[in-house]
Amino acid sequence: MSTWIDPPPVYPDDLESVLVQAETELVELDVAVETVRVELANFAHLHHHWLGPLYARLDELDALIAEVTVAQTWDPADIQHALRTRRQVDPAGIGKGDSPDGEAASSASHHRRVRISPPAQRLYRELARRAHPDLTQDTGEKQRRERFIVRVNQAYAQGDLAALRRLADEWAAAPDFAPPSDSPDRPAWLRTRLGWLRSRASELRAELAELADSPISRLWALDRGNPEELLRQLADQLFTQITERKEQLRQLLDD
User: Quick one: pLDDT at residue 46?
Assistant: First the structure.
C-alpha cells in the first residue's frame, strides 16, 4: 500500500525566481512567434508578387491546351478535363492573352524584403520583455500595454530601428503594476500569475507549431537564409513549364 507524500511547499522566494523564469520564457516565445510572423509575411508577399502571375499564366495555358484538345476530339473525358482546368484559372487572369512573362519579375522588383537588423531585434526583445501585456493583471494597464505593443510590433515589422528607440524612450518611465514584495497579497498573486504564464506559454508553443506547419512556412523552410534565391529558382522552373506549355499549344494549333 503506497503512502501519499505531499510535495514540498514552494516558498515566496522560490516563487519569485520561478516567476522570473516563466516571464522570460513567455517573452522569448512571444518574440519567436512574432519573428516568424514577420518573416512569413515577407516571404508570402514576395511569393505572391514573384510567382503569382507565373502560376496564373501556367493555369491559363493549361486551360487553353485542354480547350483546344476538346475542339479536336470532343471526347467526354477531355470535355470534363477542360472544364476542371478552366475552373482553376484565376478569373482576374482570364482573357489576358500572351502578356509578357517578364511582368512577374518586373513587379517583384518594386517589392523588397524587410530586413530586420540585430540591434532592432535586440531592442524589440527588450521592449517586449518590459511592456508585454501579459505581464500585468490590471485591466487598464493591460489595455495600455496592448496599445503600446501594437506600435512596437508595427515598427518591428518595418525594421524601423529609430521608431523602436523612440518607443523605448517613451516606455522608460512606465510603472509596473504588481503587489509589493512585502505585501501579504504577493504570494497569492505570484501563484496565480505563474499558472497563467504557463498556460499562455503553452498557447504560444501551439501557435508557433501551427505557423511552422503552414504550406508557406514549409516552402520558406527550404532556404530561410536566402528566400529570394529560392523564389528565383522556383520562378525559373515555372518559366520552363510555361515555355513547354506554349510549345504544346502551338503544336496543337498547327495540327
Answer: 93
pLDDT of residue 156: 92
Burial class of 215 by CB neighbour count within 10 A (0 to 12, 13 to 18, 19+): exposed
The pTM for the full model equals: 0.67
CB distance 53 to 104 below 8 Å: yes
Is there a contact between 26 and 134 (Cβ–Cβ < 8 Å)?
Answer: yes
Closest CA to 26 of 245, 176, 201: 201
Give the whole-angstrom CA distance, residue 44 versus residue 92.
20
Q: Where are the alpha helices (DSSP H) in the chain?
A: 12-73, 76-88, 103-108, 118-131, 139-157, 161-171, 186-212, 215-220, 227-254
Written as nine digits, the cell of 102 is 517578364
Distance CA 1, CA 227 (A): 61
Per-residue pLDDT reduced to its tens digit, 60-83: 999 999 999 999 899 999 899 989
Within 8 A by CB and 6+ apart from 63, the residues are: 82, 85, 86, 88, 89
